[in-house]
Amino acid sequence: MNDPIVIVGAGLGGVRLAESVRGAGFEGGVILLGAEDHPPYDHPPLSKEVVTGQSERVDLKPAEFYAEKNIDLRTGSRVVAVDPDSHTVSVERDGERRDVAYGTLVLATGLAARRFPGVADEVTGVHVIRTIEDALAVRAAAGKASRAAVIGAGFIGCEVAASLRKLEVPVTLIEPAPTPLAAAVGETIGELITRLHREADVDVRTGVGVDRIVADDGAVTSVELADGSSVDADLVVVGIGGYPELDYLEGSGIEIAPRESGGGIACNSSGRTDIPDVYALGDCANWSDADGDRHRVEHWTHTVDQAALVAAEIVGHEITHQSVPYFWSDQYGLKIQMLGSPNPADDVHVVDDDGRKFLAYYSRDGILTGVVGAGRVGKLMKARQHLLTPTPISALLDG
Ligand SMILES: Cc1cc2nc3c(=O)[nH]c(=O)nc-3n(C[C@H](O)[C@H](O)[C@H](O)COP(=O)(O)OP(=O)(O)OC[C@H]3O[C@@H](n4cnc5c(N)ncnc54)[C@H](O)[C@@H]3O)c2cc1C
């Protein structure tokens, strides 16, 4: 393999890839290009400890890590084009453009936050949470807010609602689907999580979308809902998801997956794109599985697992570790966790519910497909072993 490995995107996936190739003994050049001016930082705390003010330092690694591992970290360096023919990427830094040559290229550029349409940039009080600056801005706005509206009750929207309640800001959480989080965890579990919000006095409005964000004199004042009602708010957080921002791949010939299968950079089951020496991983990547089905997943552990797989592929090692899909969310002092890949339509078996904490199994055709819990860390992790091989759900329900 020719040097160097050039990684585009100095977030979780990029840093883990760099660390893993070094861990596997790769001694050639590793260049880590990050568009932001910050050293690489972690995203999960942004909607949690950063909004509540419990933490502002979310660096992925100590400052000395990059020099110690001989990783050439270049912050403030945005890749604006990729040319596989010449094996170069074009990098914009301080207004100047330079080409950087690669032997192997890894794309780990994450997502950009989707904005609510029709809101002028100069309107104050309307926020998203994707970067550290976004989270600090929400934190600052929360200190002055008298009433907040959170648009979108996905995991990030739910976490922001919980963080704002911790700061004692009154919150309305607005979700067009009938049940928050139903697309991710199914209706039964979505209801159990919604219960936590209602108990914390969040005004949860479901089954109704937002028509318009209203501003007066350059500052947000309310949001108008599709049912004709209006919610007063001097702080609005828009949590309607993100999208892979891939303009920099235009003209590169690197295949983009169709929108219906999640979009993102199309890869095989070990992260290779259709162009030699180019890989993609993390939130921006859409890998195919053994059955040829495509998946683009936006979870922390998934990104870490993919970075390990791509690193092994690049350095020619084999990986024997069997991973079980996992994600977590923190809301109202509870750790909500899911193991496995259940479909929202799978059968749900709630085996423990004390009115706040709960544990449930999912099954399809009698076989366990996943486990979800809130405040049940030990019990949930015990179930992990049962997801490594097909396990009849009856064995868990009877046991
Ligand atoms: C607020 C928030 C809370 C989250 N909470 C959880 C959670 O509780 N549990 C969980 O499982 N997951 C959570 N996630 C998801 C998790 O953080 C992501 O899955 C993970 O960060 C993905 O890693 P990544 O490397 O693909 O992207 P990122 O970590 O987003 O890194 C991508 C990097 O690429 C850079 N970049 C983009 N374009 C370019 C370019 N052209 N040139 C150079 N650099 C570029 C970006 O600036 C960014 O730093 C959360 C995400 C967010 C935003």
Secondary structure tally, helices: 10
Whole-angstrom Rg: 22 Å
For the record, give the distance between the C-alpha atoms at the N and C termini, rounded to a whole number: 52 Å
Count of discrete structural domains: 3
Overall average residue pLDDT: 95
- Largest sheet: spatial strand order: 3-2-1-7-19
What general outline do the C-alpha atoms trace? globular
Q: Remind me, CATH topology of the largest domain?
A: FAD/NAD(P)-binding domain
> Strand portion, in percent?
25-35%
Helical percent range? 10-25%
- What name goes with the CATH superfamily of the largest domain? FAD/NAD(P)-binding domain
What is the CATH top level name of the largest domain? Alpha Beta
Q: In the CATH hierarchy, what is the architecture of the largest domain at level 2?
A: 3-Layer(bba) Sandwich
> Unreliable segments (pLDDT under 50, ≥5 consecutive)?
none
Structural class: alpha/beta
What molecules are bound to this protein?
A: flavin-adenine dinucleotide
Largest sheet: 5 strands, parallel
What's the total number of strands?
26
If you had to describe this structure to a student in words, what would you say it looks like?
- The protein is of the alpha/beta class and 399 residues long.
- The protein folds into three domains: 5-111 and 244-315, FAD/NAD(P)-binding domain; 114-241, FAD/NAD(P)-binding domain (3-Layer(bba) Sandwich); 333-398, Enolase-like, domain 1 (2-Layer Sandwich).
- It is 22% helix and 30% strand.
- The strands form seven sheets. It has a five-stranded parallel beta sheet, with helices on one face.
- The model has no long low-confidence stretch (mean pLDDT 95).
- The structure holds flavin-adenine dinucleotide (FAD).
- Flavin-adenine dinucleotide binds at residues 8-14, 33-36, 43-44, 46-47, 78-79, 108-110, 129-130, 156, 248, 282-284, 298-301, 303, 327-329.
- Flavin-adenine dinucleotide binds next to helix 1, strand 4, helix 8 and strand 22.
